[in-house]
Design goal:
This protein is an alpha/beta fold and 385 residues long. The chain has twelve helices and 14 strands. Strand 11 and strand 12 form a beta hairpin. Helix 3 runs parallel beside helix 9. The model has no long low-confidence stretch (mean pLDDT 96). The structure holds pyridoxal-5'-phosphate.
C-alpha cells in the first residue's frame, strides 16, 4: 500500500477553469480586471534590476515591512476600499462609517502565500478533529477541502430562503458542538453580506473560548469590515486577500488581522510548515500595492459601479439576481438552466462560473470585468435571451 489512508480520502478544490485552447474573456474566477498599481510594476522592476543578489538570499521570514504596509493601508482605507475617500492631495482616509476606532499595528497582521494558505494555517491552529466546526452550507468551497485534508468534521448550516446566512442556527450549532465558526462576509457565491452589527451580535452570543473566523475576501467592494470588532473580541480572526480588490491574484498574497496573541500562534504553525511562505518579490510587490491606496480605492469603486449597472441589466432581462456587495453577481433565469447559459456564453468567447452543486445548480456566478468586457457579455446575453 503506497498511499496513506489520508490521501485516498482527499477531495481537492476545483478552481475556475483556465483554458489554453483559445483566448476567453475570463469572468469566472473573481479576478480583478485591472492591473496592479504602477507602484507595483516599478517596485518589481527595481527589485529585479537593482537588487538581483536578494533573489539568492532567503527573504525576511516574518515579512515585517509588508506587515507594516498592510496595517497602514487598513488604517487609511478603514478596510473598505470602495468607500474610502481620496483627497485632492492623493491621500486617502476612511469613510465615516468605516473608521477603525484604534490603530491596526503590524503585530496584528500575519501573511501567507494567498489567503488559501492562511486559511490552511487557521484550520490547523483552531479547529479540532474531535469537534464539528460550523460553516454555511454554501460558502467558499475551499473550507470543506481543508476540513477533509486535516480530518476535521464539519457542521454545514443551510442558508435561509433569501440565501442569507442563518446566523441563529449557526450559533445554536456552535454552542451544541462546543466549536468554532467560519464564514465569508460578504459570502460567496451569493455575494450577500452581514452588517458589522449583525456580526457583533453573533460574537456576543458565541462562546469567547471558540474561534470565530470571518473571511473578508470581497469586503472592499461594498461590505462592512469586522476589523473594528477586534477591539471587543479576542476570539475573532479576519482573513483577507490581495487577489480580489488589490488586483494581485498572481502575487499569491493573503493575510489575517487578529490580536497579536493569535497572530503568534499562527506564526508558530507556519514555522512548522514553511518558514518562508512569502518570497522576496511578493514582499516587495505587496508593500508597493499597500502604498497606493488611492489607486485601489478607485479600481474598487469602478468595479462596484459596473456591478450595479450589470445588476440592472440582468434584472431587465428577467434574471433573479442577488444584491451583491462583491465583485461578482449570482443570478439565475427562469427560462434557461445555469449549465446551458454557461455553455452558450462560452461559445461566444466569455467564461463565467457554473457550479453543478445541487441546490445552486440553476445559478451562474459572473465576475465583474471592465466596462468593455461587460459590454461584450451583455451583447452575448442579448443573443441568448
Ligand atoms: C478568492 C477567495 C479566497 C482566496 O484567495 P487567495 O487567492 O488564495 O488569496 C479566500 N476566500 C474567499 C471567500 C475567496 O473568494
Amino acid at each position: 500500500m503506497i498511499l496513506s489512508s489520508r490521501v485516498k480520502k482527499l477531495k481537492p478544490y476545483v478552481p475556475g477553469e483556465q483554458p489554453k485552447d483559445r483566448i476567453y474573456i475570463k469572468l469566472n474566477a473573481n479576478e480583478n480586471p485591472y492591473p496592479p498599481s504602477p507602484f507595483v510594476q516599478n517596485a518589481v522592476l527595481d527589485f529585479v534590476k537593482n537588487h538581483p543578489e536578494k533573489l539568492g538570499l532567503y527573504p525576511d521570514p516574518d515579512s515585517n515591512e509588508l506587515h507594516a504596509a498592510i496595517a497602514d493601508m487598513l488604517n487609511k482605507s478603514g478596510g473598505v476600499l470602495c468607500r474610502a475617500k481620496t483627497n485632492a492631495d492623493g491621500s486617502v482616509e476612511p469613510s465615516e462609517e468605516d473608521k477603525i476606532p484604534f490603530t491596526v499595528t503590524p503585530q496584528m497582521i500575519y501573511t501567507g502565500n494567498g489567503s488559501d494558505e492562511v486559511l490552511s494555517m487557521v484550520f490547523y491552529a483552531f479547529f479540532d478533529s474531535s469537534k464539528r466546526f460550523v460553516m454555511p452550507e454554501f460558502t467558499y468551497s475551499f473550507y470543506p477541502v481543508y476540513a477533509g485534508y486535516y480530518d476535521i468534521p464539519t457542521d454545514c448550516v443551510p442558508l435561509k430562503e433569501d440565501w442569507s446566512l442563518d446566523t441563529d442556527e449557526m450559533l445554536t450549532r456552535a454552542a451544541k458542538n462546543n466549536s468554532g465558526i467560519i464564514f465569508a462576509n460578504p459570502n460567496a457565491p451569493t455575494g450577500l453580506g452581514l452588517t458589522r452589527e449583525q456580526v457583533r451580535q453573533m460574537l456576543k452570543k458565541a462562546s469567547s473560548d471558540e474561534i470565530f473566523i470571518v473571511d473578508e475576501a470581497y469586503v472592499d467592494f461594498g461590505g462592512e469590515s469586522c476589523i473594528p470588532l477586534l477591539a471587543e473580541f479576542n476570539n475573532l480572526v479576519i482573513v483577507r486577500t490581495f487577489s480580489k480588490s488589490l488586483c494581485g491574484a498572481g502575487q499569491r498574497l493573503g493575510y489575517l488581522v487578529s490580536n497579536p496573541e493569535l497572530v503568534n500562534t499562527i506564526t508558530t504553525v507556519k514555522n512548522c510548515v514553511n518558514h518562508f511562505p512569502i518570497d522576496a518579490v511578493a514582499q516587495v510587490s505587496g508593500k508597493a500595492a499597500c502604498e497606493d491606496v488611492a489607486y485601489y480605492a478607485d479600481t474598487s469603486r469602478k468595479v462596484a459601479e459596473e456591478r450595479e449597472k450589470f445588476y440592472n441589466f440582468l434584472q431587465s432581462k428577467g434574471f433573479y439576481v442577488l444584491k451583491s456587495q462583491t465583485n461578482f453577481l449570482f443570478a439565475k433565469h427562469p427560462e434557461i438552466s445555469g449549465a446551458d447559459l454557461y455553455k452558450k456564453i462560452k461559445e461566444q468567447g466569455l467564461l463565467i462560473r457554473h457550479f453543478a452543486t445541487p441546490g445552486i445548480e440553476d445559478f451562474v456566478r459572473i465576475t465583474i470585468g471592465t466596462p468593455e468586457q461587460m459590454e461584450q457579455l451583455m451583447s452575448a446575453i442579448d443573443n441568448i435571451i
